[in-house]
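Forwarding the complex inputs:
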Amino acid sequence: MIHAAPVRSLWWFLVLLLSGAFLNPLSLSAQEVEPTSVLDKPVPETIEELKEIESRVKKMLPKAMACTVGIQIGRSAGSGVIISEDGYILTAAHVSGPAGQKATIIFPDGKTVEAKTLGGNEGIDSGMIKIETVGKYPFAEMAVSKSIKRGKWCIATGHPGGYKEGRAPVVRVGRVIDASDRVIRTDCTLVGGDSGGPLFDFDGKVIGIHSRIGGSITSNLHVPVDTYRQTWDRLVSGERWGGAVSPPTRTNDAYYGFQLDPDEAAPTIKRIVAGSPVDTAGFEAGDVILKFNKRKYTDREELRAAILRKKPGDEVTFEVERDGETLTLTVKVGKNES
Amino acid sequence: MKRDIPHRRFGLVVALATVALGLSPALTSAQSSGSGFSLKSDPAFLKLFRDSIARVSESIVRIRSENEDVALGIIITSDGFILSKASLLGRDNLCVLSTGREVKCRVHAVHEQHDLAVLKTEVKNLKAVNWSLAKNATAGAWVAAAGSQVDPLAVGVISVGVRTLNARELAFESSIPQGGYLGIQMEPIEKDAGVRVTQVMPGTAASKAGMKEDDIVIRIGETLIDKRERVFEVLSKTRPGDTILLRVKRGDEVIKIEVLLGKRPATERADFQNAMGSTLSQRRAGFPTVLQHDTVIRPQDCGGPLIDLDGKVLGINIARSGRVESLTIPSETVVGLLKELQAGKSTPPSAIQRYLPITDEKTGGSLGNINDR
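Prediction (whole assembly, two chains):
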């Protein structure tokens, strides 16, 4: 563990506080400053403190779980959280999709009600749904996310893998790693099905909505809740905005000679033209493209654009997976004659 | 699995539903690499669990096979019975006690569905574990995966309390293609039993063994193949590197094809997201009763105990099953199986074959042998 120099002056402590962020949670020595609770400490220090955290989590969970819902829209499954008694639900834009669709809301006990999708901001990935069946629903309050800092304790619930009969919303506890007004990153692990589910603070208020993950186990990204409040009217009115830029069209004549399988989510070679640049380089059908010119691409359109930006005669490398092995293949980009 | 599965595009997770946790703007490499600051990997945090681990550490063993650490084990009786995760074990197992002493051990009985094995060693006066009820471990409780070190292997919280899967879910999980990989696509045949090979994927085990399109697989080892699911069932009991003997109808002939099974690619199950950021256990689904938590354990950490803050043993860690989950078989379930396992009864009886030392080529292994009739 890194031991930073103890803070000797109160003035310095005030400056750090006003700067709005703990740049390094270990920069304040626990001896110099008296935190108000275990939740403010950089690291809990005793088993009693761990038990306190555990007891606070258990206290807020029943209510938090009660308003965590599964969402089914057509063939898509995700999660959401009810934030008003009459049934407004916060979720991810990529879960709710276009406005005006029917959605089925699944409560922890398996009970379902019907709902309708409202608006979404595709740029930040916020979406909203409204329950149509009239009733009084368990709901959570929204927190203020602008003051969220690194180190803040949080609890994630949701339905990873989709709602499963008899399985309550799945609980994870962790802390905020990074926060901005666009995205919150935590070490609460997320996976498909969690999208749209809630990130709570220890008071049971919603601070974020699960959005996406990255390669690392600590790359778990959530939409900060403030955006829902700030764009409430637009979301409720069914407006959809902030969409991704459309993919670039082909502008040159680079030729490779492979076809990707449209049914595979990962870029997988389906067919290779005999004698083509990729055939010469040793590609085989079934190869999965992991990297292009040493860069990983999470977005297939971006990968396609990058590949097509090359010119005939360029030498490019592909890292592919074949049979559980990783290979690097060098391709001399050909020219599209037709 | 030693290879780290790299960053991929987000895709389907569950069979029917798109779970798209990520059609949003691509992450830059700065965001997607590195571990960030997580308390769960901070040594100052992990050491808080040392006292709890210490209460149990004498009952934990490391199991080695072919000169590698393959699993952990839990001492269940003082006269030498040890519990572990069956599918990690080999034919020749060595147990390393907490004192560092190495003792030979042999697999005594196996329960295939729970993937549990009881081993026997000739050492006496061992410290047997005390099992505690897991049913009181509710979501949000801190838990730690214990191994042979003073610090926990991983810490986290209970995500879902003890749960017994309903019949439909268990059947679904058990039917998910697992185990060794052939590399073929198949279709059922209307009248006769068997499956027709519609495609042999290039570079796969099936391709290397000489399987061809239109081959009809009628038997694998002792098992008659009546449908595709039967093939998945047989394969789920194998591991990459196993050899299986297929009986195949090609044209008018029936021929024997021996296949050395390969590793199942992550792409086949389209479960990229679950594989992101950690390595999953090969056998990771189809356990009837489980306790789920968010600790990040490695496949070889399975076989060790899950403990709470009081050092109570809640069960045996059985799988790293996904990005958000690791599974433990609760103490109550384990204790219910021990009587038969200690008595040497395997379920099914043939399940123990793959763990017995090969004394005679003709009797070794339950999956068939090239010298077979």
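Residues 283 and 329 of chain A are 7 Å apart (CA to CA).
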